[in-house]
Here is the input.
Amino acid sequence: MKKILSLLFGHIFLILGIIGAFLPVLPTTPFLLLAAWLYSKSSPRLHNWIINHKYLGPPLRDWQERGVIGMKAKIIATIMLVLVIVFRIATLEVSLYVRGFATIVLVGVLIFIWSRPSVVKK
Here is the structure.
């Protein structure tokens, strides 16, 4: 049952990741990382497929093997998170504490992203 659920959620996260490649409001890489991890628990064949995929595989391998987040992904993530902070969180009709907490979380995500290396060190 655990294997079946891992496979099912792997497919769901793969689909969300692919959709995210075309929609600027939906992240791609986190969903693909989840899909790869779930496939590693449920299907060696699908895990091998996603890790070695022509387009999906390189950033997944970079992260999995070396903890690298590419510069293009960092820039896109930064732009999207800043837009969310400026245009969405700032306009929410919730308490200042909730908006402040959400902003702190997103800034923490940005700090994590920018603390990772951008290139593979040989």
The radius of gyration is 16 Å. The first helix runs from residue 2 to 22.
